[in-house]
Amino acid sequence: MSKARNILVIGGGVGGLAAAIGLHQQGVEVEVVERDKDWKVYHVGIIVQANFVRALNVLGIGDAAVKAGYAYRGARFCDLDGRVLKELPGETAVDGLPSDLGLTRPALHKVLTEKVRELGIPVRLGVTFESIEDRGDRVDVSFTDGTKGSYDLVIGADGNYSAARKLLFPDAVPRYTGQGVWRYNVPRPQDLEWSDLYIGKDKGKAGYCPLTPEDMYIFAVFEEPGNPRFAPETLADEMRRRLEGYGGILGEAARHVTDPALVVYRPLEACILPSPWYRGRVVLIGDAAHSATPHLGQGAAMAIEDAVVLAEEIAARDVEDALDAFMQRRFERAKLVGTSSIQLGEWEMHPETAGDPIELTDRIRKALAEPV
Ligand SMILES: Cc1cc2nc3c(=O)[nH]c(=O)nc-3n(C[C@H](O)[C@H](O)[C@H](O)COP(=O)(O)OP(=O)(O)OC[C@H]3O[C@@H](n4cnc5c(N)ncnc54)[C@H](O)[C@@H]3O)c2cc1C
């Protein structure tokens, strides 16, 4: 096999756009197809840490992401009344840039899409693959817009419900973990400098994270037996009910959860593939390869780290060796995040078996501060 010179990325989300930017910067010809013709993302916020900033900095957009979000000092564990039990201060991985950051998903999307446009990377919206034929020395792809293409490598970055994964590993399907997450953006106290997590309530936890100088978002992760579906008009009442019994800033903020249309509820699902995440010349990255629950706030960072490492390896070696080297650098790290996230959820649902969530979170944060 020789080095990959032209690559198709399926999925224009966090990992797919990061991969396209990284590959373009390595001199590889790259194009993206994105199924959603409107290229929309959820309006909620995401929590990210130093390894996210470091990975985006490699792509030349660390600074832009920091400006688009709100930097804070780190994570704190609190009791039900908001009394601080433990501080986990963030440690920067890039001189001059902060570590922990809250930003809205649309703000991250804007940073990534602006860079893609600036680099002139072709993105076809409302288009996906119809068939993928791996010929050994290239991959032939036909698309839903009637066109065809031939590539040295195809990257499946099409998220948790990946069609590329279904093609490569049909037995791997996301599994409901037993919990759901509720999210809502609210006005924030002026002096908020931490993301706080209130623990100790039966079957779940809740907290908030600053997003902008004006706003923060509240999240609540609770056991949801039977994976229920909620009527849209009930979502604010359901979320507020789960926030009953909390004091401190969280108890105050819960009163702002009033508009059911602004509640984002998601059942938590996970699908962590064993190694390798590729077959022949088709490789999966991000949630398509290792979707986990949000307990460590690492989904976006893992997808971007995948993208950065894959671009580096593709530039350095021929396709087969690059994919092997990619797995060597990525598998254990992504698995650690995925299994630890699921473990934290299990402890919340089964307190009688619980270990120490603060210790585990601290340990993983420190492990991820190490370079990839
Ligand atoms: C509500 C919510 C809150 C979250 N909060 C956090 C957080 O706080 N911190 C954090 O780090 N992570 C968070 N995550 C997880 C994080 O968003 C994901 O881990 C991350 O986006 C994974 O990137 P990805 O590129 O693999 O998938 P995505 O970003 O989901 O991108 C997949 C893209 O592929 C497209 N697509 C799907 N199927 C096809 C197809 N067949 N063909 C072409 N395109 C296709 C989709 O439209 C999408 O644009 C959250 C996720 C959700 C849903």
From TrEMBL:
It comes from the Bacteria. InterPro entries: FAD-bd, FAD-dep_Monooxygenase_BioMet, FAD/NAD-bd_sf. GO terms for molecular function: FAD binding; monooxygenase activity. Keywords: Monooxygenase, Oxidoreductase. Residues 7-335 form the FAD-binding domain. The keyword Oxidoreductase applies. Coiled coil: none annotated. Gene3D superfamilies: FAD/NAD(P)-binding domain. PANTHER family: MONOOXYGENASE (PTHR13789), PUTATIVE (AFU_ORTHOLOGUE AFUA_6G14510)-RELATED (PTHR13789:SF309). This is 2-polyprenyl-6-methoxyphenol hydroxylase-like FAD-dependent oxidoreductase. It comes from Sphingobium jiangsuense.
